[in-house]
Design a protein that fits this description.
By secondary structure, the chain is of the alpha/beta class. It has twelve helices and five strands.
């Protein structure tokens, strides 16, 4: 096309087509195809549509070909010097994003790309554009997400680690006929928990809620070795629910000399009747309390997270009886899976 690229001889077109057939670089191949299409008389807009590129790209490639010829189609970015986004730079960026901006002297508590550019320049001496920072964040698989609120443990780090180490050591060296379990309670609401779900563009799924909420409670104990689950349910989350679970554990492990119960500091675990019930069982139940506000150390919490994802989040149950049917199905399925895994290990 006159004015966009110069007239090409037949032999020059054939040479470009031959280069396209040999080319292994997708970007360079696309630029060759732009020139060949224009040389065949196709307009810029149909060329851009046929090659799935923008019209701006077509005009830019044509301009470079018009000024420099075939050399203008090559990628000259290798002449820009050393890459800014090398392994060292990306490692520093990864460490920076994991930390709070206020650790680097910023007053704002959340990161922006501009703040990351400036912080990385101070830490590495490498300056970059905000667009390059976006590409770097994609390379380290960073994402914008909602932080999880947590309460810090009031204990000193030494005291916390000492308690956790003693519990882990106890579980690693359980004597014969001793059992270790993680215990926690979970709430179930007829009004469903709202959670993320896949939707198509223009759609927002609806979850019909009953309006008047009804609650049920589970107290569960997960075997620290086999993963088997023992549970009881109740209408209220009180000490009697926890004591009922302890009695259920004694029936589930009739040959256990001692059952070591690892649990948090919820008030029903400390009530006046709980120590009395534990003492009445003659030392067969031993409670091991985790440091305050350390839910990640209670392994059954991960099971409850899966429980909410599988059962309670966005559920469509119209009655509490229907919801509890789904709850029981999940718990039995989870227990059967744990037993199958244990049998495979034993085999």
């Amino acid at each position: 096309m006159d004015g966009i690229i110069p007239q090409l001889r037949w032999i020059d077109k054939e040479r470009l087509i031959e280069r396209i057939q040999r080319c292994r670089d997708a970007g360079l191949r696309s630029r060759y195809l732009v020139i060949v299409n224009l040389a065949e008389g196709r307009a810029p807009t149909p060329t851009a549509k046929a090659l799935s590129v923008s019209r701006t790209t077509v005009y830019r490639v044509a301009k470079r070909f018009r000024k420099q010829g075939e050399v203008g189609l090559l990628d000259h970015r290798e002449d820009n010097g050393e890459r800014k986004l090398d392994e060292c730079c990306l490692a520093k960026l990864y460490d920076t994003v994991r930390r709070n901006p206020q650790e680097f002297g910023w007053r704002r508590p959340t990161w922006t790309r501009e703040m990351l550019v400036e912080t990385l320049r101070k830490r590495t001496g490498v300056g970059m554009h905000v667009t390059t920072m976006s590409r770097a964040l994609k390379m380290i698989r960073a994402r914008r997400g909602r932080p999880r609120p947590v309460v810090g443990c009031p204990w000193s780090k030494r005291a916390k680690n000492k308690r956790l180490s003693s519990i882990r050591a106890m579980l690693r060296s359980l004597p014969r006929r001793h059992v270790g379990v993680y215990v926690d309670e979970v709430d179930m609401h007829l009004n469903p928990k709202m959670g993320l779900d896949w939707m198509v563009r223009g759609q927002q799924k609806e979850v019909v809620t009953p309006g008047k909420n009804v609650k049920r409670y589970l107290a569960g104990a997960m075997n620290a070795v086999t993963g088997e689950l023992v549970w009881v349910e109740g209408m209220q989350k009180r000490s009697l629910l926890f004591i009922d679970l302890l009695g259920r554990l004694l029936r589930a492990y009739p040959h256990a000399k001692v059952i070591h119960v690892i649990l948090d500091n919820f008030r029903i675990h400390h009530s006046r009747i709980t120590p009395m019930a534990v003492a009445a069982w003659g030392g067969r139940i031993v409670l091991h309390f985790l440091p305050p506000y350390c839910p990640n150390e209670n392994r059954i919490e991960r099971l409850w997270e899966d429980f909410h994802a599988e059962v309670t989040r966005n559920h469509r149950c119209a009655s509490i009886q229907e919801l509890m049917k789904e709850v029981h199905a999940y718990l039995h399925k989870r227990t059967a899976w744990a037993r199958q895994r244990q049998n495979r290990r034993a085999a």
